[in-house]
User: What shape does this take?
Amino acid sequence: MTPALSISDLRKVYRGGTVAVNDLSMIIEPGDFFGFLGPNGAGKSTTIHCVTGIATPTSGAIEIFGVNAVTSYREARRLIGLSPQEFNVDPFATPRQIVEWMGGYFGLHGPERKRRTDELMERFDLIEHQKKNFRELSGGLKRRVILARALVHGPRLLILDEPTAGVDVELRRDLWRYLQELNRDGTTILLTSHYLEEVERLCRTIAIVSKGKVVRSGPKEEFLIDGLEAAYLSATGAEPDHVAGAAA
Assistant: This one.
């Protein structure tokens, strides 16, 4: 079976010599809910940027469902939905406009774009908010809009970068439910998060990255033997007493 995402020996060196990703390799199978963990500066965002075409790899190979993400960028990008941590939208635009504009970016024509936007406004409980300015929305509603925008073109791989950052407990659980529904419907999901409870609840496979490399990966159950936090701290080189404290 062709992987949803295949990364082989990815290396990214920025001008000035900073090595952000150093020979990183990993595979995500179709239909998986994949947790991509690591401390700040470990290379997670740079990896995502290379996958989505925001950054160009220095070397290595990236394929999205068998499509080369560098040489066939447009075809690969159509397979991906990206929900970034930042709210990179016009704050005076409405949720409906934000989603429709992204549909236009991916080539959806008028009737289809309207149909998809209608579906997403309903699915994410945004109908009563769809004509408000984005800046007027609560943090949880903003996250829903960003997620709806990422899904308007029907991507097969959804990349979520800290999707519940700054969201209260109740709204976080609502977003978890949406994501679980998407995954059950067949969407492959790559999740980065600093909320280990979130990863433990949602993901089936986990990879931990440190200093630009994957230092541990496997089924979630392997990480739960001593506890996910302890496994994370150990893999990323935390002090032994910190690891012991997390396990306790």
Observations:
- The CA atoms of residues 180 and 202 lie 7 Å apart.
- Strands lie at 5-13, 19-28, 33-37, 59-64, 67-68, 80-83, 157-161, 188-192, 205-210, 213-219.
